[in-house]
Amino acid sequence: MGKLDGRIALITGGTTGIGFSTARLFKEEGAKVYVTGRSEKSIESAKSELPGVTVLKSDAGSIAEIDALLDTLKRKEGKIDILFLNAGIAVMKPYEATTEDDFDSMFDTNLKGPFFTIQKALPLLSQGSSVILTSSVAGHKGMSMMAAYSASKAALSSLGGTLGAYLAGRGIRVNTISPGPIMTPIYGKSGMPKEAIDGMLHSISQSVPMHRIGESDEIAKTALFLASSDSSYLAGADLVVDGGYLVS
């Protein structure tokens, strides 16, 4: 028996990184899993590497595509038991160089998308369902090169707390995961040169009490805890999974 037997799970940003690892784990634990992605390359790769998982193309920051995605879930399943809003983007630039387009793209995907996905998914969320948001330690701690990204994630963590209280009475649990430095493809999409990324990750790893960068599988296990009945009395929480980085 799996911890998620018979449950319907939707994971945004599920074709790579944390979402990919979580989709694989949820499937192993008995869930019927749908994942979304934007890149044709990552979508095709996920289709071959996640057997039994349904992969859908959807932009997590587009209201029209969110509507279409939820219409698909309504038509195919009629409900959602686990909604893991994991899609996110990061543009790493000095504050002075951050453009309005940079700001809008991050806030659309990292905050507006989750805000309205939950709102629009409410009729589909079952009694006892779990909503999980992927925030970041960057929303808790000021980090250079990440002004807009950090602000979007701080707002997302706040949203998780607010909705955790607001929806608990309806039998919907909303909780947030704030990963620390995790080895995922998001760094390669950040706009920074590889040498700068490698240097940044090395520097951060020296600041983590565990002296290493985390793995996406470690965040997937946290998502499984929040998705399952193991966390039945948890609502509005923000679980920081960072190897001790914030308290160092």
Tell me what the structure shows.
There is one protein chain. This protein is an alpha/beta fold. The protein has a single domain (8-240), classed as NAD(P)-binding Rossmann-like Domain (Rossmann fold, 3-Layer(aba) Sandwich), CATH 3.40.50. 42% of the residues lie in helices and 17% in strands. The protein contains seven helices and seven strands; from the N terminus they run E-H-E-H-E-H-E-H-E-H-E-H-H-E. It has helices at residues 17-28, 40-49, 63-76, 100-121, 147-167, 194-207, 216-227; strands at residues 8-12, 32-37, 54-57, 80-85, 125-134, 172-179, 238-241. It has a seven-stranded parallel sheet, with helices on both faces. Helix 5 (147-167) links the parallel strand 5 and strand 6 (172-179). It is globular and about 45 Å long. It starts with 7 loop residues before the first strand and ends in a 7-residue tail after the last strand.
List the helices and strands and how they pair.
Blueprint: E1 8-12, H1 17-28, E2 32-37, H2 40-49, E3 54-57, H3 63-76, E4 80-85, H4 100-121, E5 125-134, H5 147-167, E6 172-179, H6 194-207, H7 216-227, E7 238-241
Helix pairs in contact: 1-7, 3-4, 4-5
